[in-house]
Amino acid sequence: MRTRAPPQPFHGRHIMATSPDALADALTLPGPVGADRRGWRRAYDADPAGFLSASQERWGDTFTLDKNLVVVGDPDMAHQILVATDRESVIGPDRLEGRFPTAEETREWMGTRKLIGRVLTPQAVRGQLPRLEQAVSTGLESLAGGGPFDPMAVTHETCLRAFLPMYLPGPAPAVVSALRDSIRAALVLADAGVHLPRWWPSSMRRRVLTARRRVHAELRALITAQRPDDQVPSDSPTLSDLLRTASVPTDQAVHVLGNALSKGLPATAGAWSWLLHDLAARPDDMARIRDEAIACRASGEELSYTRAFVRESMRTHPPAWLLARETTAPTAVSERCTVPAGTTLFVSPYLIHRDPRYWPDPHRFTPDRWTSPHTERHRYAYLPFGAGPRVCVGLHLGEVLLTLTAARIATDHHLTVTTPATAPAFRSVLQPTGIRLQLTRRAPGA
Ligand code: HEM
């Protein structure tokens, strides 16, 4: 009953439509159409980014891997496709449902997105800085007490605890534990890349549904318990405060909070793990970040080198390394080619971030490429958060969380590699594998 598909991209999937029109249009694009498909799939599975990169070199910026599967490597075109999301294409599909969202569901989500966005504006995130800093410090302290750790094994819980103060007043251990289980179950499903009919009683799917129900039950209990006498702080309301003051019905509030807490976590977790991977490998940069953090604490200036380090980390390893769209209308994929509805489009931030036409010496980790005022950058060649109407709603929070984490590690801790990383895993989220790190508290005055 199982059909296997290639690994799932972030928020996307492969499809196998076979309309003659799709074939005719796709054939105007270069690529291994008509060749042994299992051949390219094997090559893709073995080394997804290497295969896509070699294909781009061979076939050019826009190429087709199958009748209805097109990869777009030109940043202007990629940006145009992302900007046309919800008009010419959809992000798809809900992996549990195995189908794309309806227009009504998309409209509903855009309303939810607006509510979530209100607690994630740059100003709102700045208002939460003390809470965020405290949460980041506490998370790192608990890691510093233990032995070597795999960053991917601890990242979800650590990032979740840091997000929580934006969403809920006070600690919520039952919510954290339910969310951690729910996200792990969802990642197993996503990484399996298995499409099953909706009615098929898969244990993977059952686990995700059970975990999601538990999250909703915990959130419902929390919201209901808080409702009667809560005082909302006017300067930095949490998302649950906003939902309460806007009299959002409990069912909807549970849905909004569940989405806000879970949707951004996999990518943040990947970025956090790569950040630690990069910091541990670069003691000289760590020293520079530490000096900057100490100087800025006194002067109140921005942590510009630390932020540059974070950006470079997300350039070299964008967690959402492959974005997918399913076209719902004819869509231009190059100057000369428009593909029909029903085509899957892949845009890879990973490939664009390592393209030497836009990034000199692209495989070198160089934070200073972000600090020099003389560096010219292509305006769409950096896409760690996507672009267009479905751009990451948590991008400010993500960047701030990572910047605070880097600064805290550099000032308060030593971070070392005890086991080096093996090849990165290009799953639904790009992640380091094999690595073990050790975090130890810095002695006072050291
Ligand atoms: C460094 C951390 C993060 C990275 C790299 C990241 C990356 C992304 C990317 C690339 C997308 C767009 C996917 C697409 O176009 O297919 C996205 C969407 C999204 N992100 Fe993030 N994200 C991060 C942090 C966060 C945080 C902290 C939150 C919220 C707490 C968040 C919430 C969301 C949501 C709700 C969406 C869906 C937007 C929509 O479909 O309308 N993200 N993220």
From TrEMBL:
The keyword DNA damage does not apply. SUPFAM superfamilies: Cytochrome P450. Its cofactor is heme. InterPro entries: Cyt_P450, Cyt_P450_CS, Cyt_P450_E_grp-IV, Cyt_P450_sf, Cytochrome_P450_monoxygenase. This is Cytochrome P450. Gene3D superfamilies: Cytochrome P450 (1.10.630.10). GO terms for molecular function: heme binding; iron ion binding; monooxygenase activity; oxidoreductase activity, acting on paired donors, with incorporation or reduction of molecular oxygen. PANTHER family: CYTOCHROME P450 (PTHR24305), CYTOCHROME P450 12A4, MITOCHONDRIAL-RELATED (PTHR24305:SF166). The keyword DNA-binding does not apply. Belongs to the cytochrome P450 family. It comes from the Bacteria. It comes from Streptomyces paludis. Heme binds at residue 392. Coiled coil: none annotated. It holds the Pfam family p450. Keywords: Heme, Iron, Metal-binding, Monooxygenase, Oxidoreductase.
